[in-house]
Design goal:
Two copies of one chain form a homodimer. Chain A has helices at residues 13-37, 40-47, 51-57, 61-86, 90-105, 109-119, 134-149, 157-180, 187-208, 213-230. Chain A has 246 residues and is mainly alpha-helical. Chain A starts with 12 loop residues before the first helix and ends in a 16-residue tail after the last helix. Chain A binds a DNA duplex (30 and 30 nucleotides) through helix 1 and helix 3.
DNA sequence: CCCAGTTTTTGAACTCGTTCAAAAAACTTC
DNA sequence: GAAGTTTTTTGAACGAGTTCAAAAACTGGG
């Protein structure tokens, strides 16, 4: 279930082509048959390459899945841009962006659970806190930076600086809820979004109150420290994934 | 990786004995060799039974692992009781209980990541929100109920009612951090506990302020709803784990 | 004590992720 | 265009979780 090597870079046009073929086949199968039935063998078969060849380009099934992150984020981003251009209040922006996120992920609800399952392992390249996912995570947080940046709202600088990260965490929490949500049309998730966005908006106002400054400072210092701990900025992960294996 | 059937009930004294033997062997090996190296085959070998026999009593490796929850919770509870008897302030109680939790889990840090990995899957019997884990979760929350109940602190009833659940969630978050914590002696986790407990204490005071009543009410109503959604109270889980398989 | 029914136990098989040595194809350099 | 090197591709194997039919052990009633 774990991986040793990362996706091998292609050195040839032919290689590039094969890699893309495998990737597309995989994404297609994931969408059509879910995670369990999308075996590496099935992907290789359908793509018309050998099993070993798939592993040549993608060091593990996890690596193959990682492209899913990128793909859905890209979709979400494209869907969000018009909203960010149109809306100006933080609350309206956040509400729309969150709803669009769920819309984007909906086709993959079936296997999202498994995705987040492997994502919870600190050694997994899919872990959103780990190095391997850094580019995607960075992109993902960037969206919330944009969301906060252009919004007209009186927010203290210290809070404004951490807010994108906090909102990103919040959005991860919503996704976690969504995974467990079996209600029709994810009504509960959307309701949760409505409620929490309203609450967050109120809380941000509250936290912006000068009287709250000491508590806010303390809380933000903690958040900043946590963020640094959880998301180290360089090198040595992913290559030594096997601390206890073998 | 997933399971179909649950642990089979034993019908005989002999069966009971065999089941216990397998379980103890498994726990021992988990402690000594970590998760990866504790294969079902290795357990069966060491216990002197056949592989199929192990599967007769434990429908899957996950089921076998579930006993881990119970075991460590029991240890944590025993370690916490004296503290709850001794300390009276909410802050001191929470601080001690959280530190003891980490102490209790420490021997299993190596494989805790994998544990929480499978736990994140909504279909996994290890998922702390799922039915299968209900007894253990209930016990676990009960500890926080005791923690809150006897503490001398002026807390509004509505908040007091939800606080145990909120603290349980908080404690899950700390564990998640701890899993990712690679600092020496988990210094960062302990530091995080110190800081967050302090912060929580302040926040509880703040939230208890009459001025906060409207926001508090709204937030607590949300929490109550979430709790009900995430932790349904009966029936139909665990038996239909394979929504997409085959 | 024997027999039918249950429960326990076995062992072989299957699937799937992963690895690896070696063959095939592509590319470089002279 | 031939020799050598690198990249791509293959196919067979291994390890681990899981399943299952059937053998073995056990049980209670006649």
């Amino acid at each position: 279930m774990k991986s040793g090597k990362k996706s091998t870079a292609t050195k040839t046009a032919k290689g590039e082509q094969t890699k893309a073929l495998i990737l597309n086949t995989a994404l297609e199968m994931l969408h059509e048959r879910g995670y369990q039935n999308t075996t590496m063998r099935a992907i290789a078969d359908k793509a018309g390459v050998s099993l070993g060849n798939a592993y040549h380009y993608f060091g593990s099934k996890d690596h193959l899945i990682q492209s899913f992150y990128h793909s859905t984020h890209e979709n979400h981003l494209q869907a969000s841009l018009p909203v960010l251009r149109r809306e100006s209040s933080l609350k309206a922006r956040l509400l729309s962006v969150m709803r669009l996120k769920i819309d984007t992920l909906e086709p993959y609800h079936e296997f999202a659970g498994v995705l987040f399952q492997t994502a919870a392992d600190p050694h997994s390249p899919l872990n959103p806190f780990a190095h391997a996912a850094e580019p995607v995570r960075r992109d993902s947080i960037k969206l919330f930076e944009d969301l906060v940046a252009d919004s007209k709202a009186r927010i203290p600088d210290d809070l404004r600086a951490e807010l994108p990260y906090l909102l990103w965490l919040y959005h991860m929490g919503i996704i976690l809820f969504w995974i467990h949500d079996t209600s029709r049309k994810r009504a509960r998730t959307f309701r949760l979004i409505d409620q929490t966005v309203d609450l967050l908006d109120k809380l941000i106002s509250l936290a912006s109150n000068p009287l709250m400054r000491p508590v806010r400072k303390k809380a933000l210092a903690l958040v900043a420290e946590l963020r640094d701990d959880l998301t180290p900025s360089s090198s040595d992960d992913d290559n030594e994934a096997e601390s206890e294996a073998q």
